[in-house]
Amino acid sequence: AFPSSTPSIHLETPTFRTVMTQTEVTATCVVHSAYDAKVTWLLDGKDPTSRTKVNQASSTTQSISSNLTLPSSQWKTLNTITCRAEHRCFNSTEKTSNVKG
Description:
The protein contains two helices and seven strands, in the order βαββββαββ. The N and C termini lie far apart (about 45 Å). The longest helix is centred in the N-terminal third of the chain and has 6 residues, at about 15-20. It is mostly beta strands. The strands form two sheets. Strands 1-2-5-4 form a four-stranded antiparallel β-sheet. Strands 3-6-7 form a three-stranded antiparallel β-sheet, with no helix packed on it.
């Protein structure tokens, strides 16, 4: 039986320097879970727009990595970015980072 423990989420956001010097920036979310959780992103509490690229890398047995890429101009207008992990075996878990510069 799998543990019914809540997954841990690690959220990495681009540095201020990266946002200022690159045209596109990427945030990375790593979910550590025994389950193949579905990873979703929220920008200021809303689903990302079509201009935002989400790439969910193949998951290993213990972690899932998801990258969110968006234009720096859009990143600069954000207040918060949220990574959420969902699976029927645990309550949805999320981690929010305040990115207002």
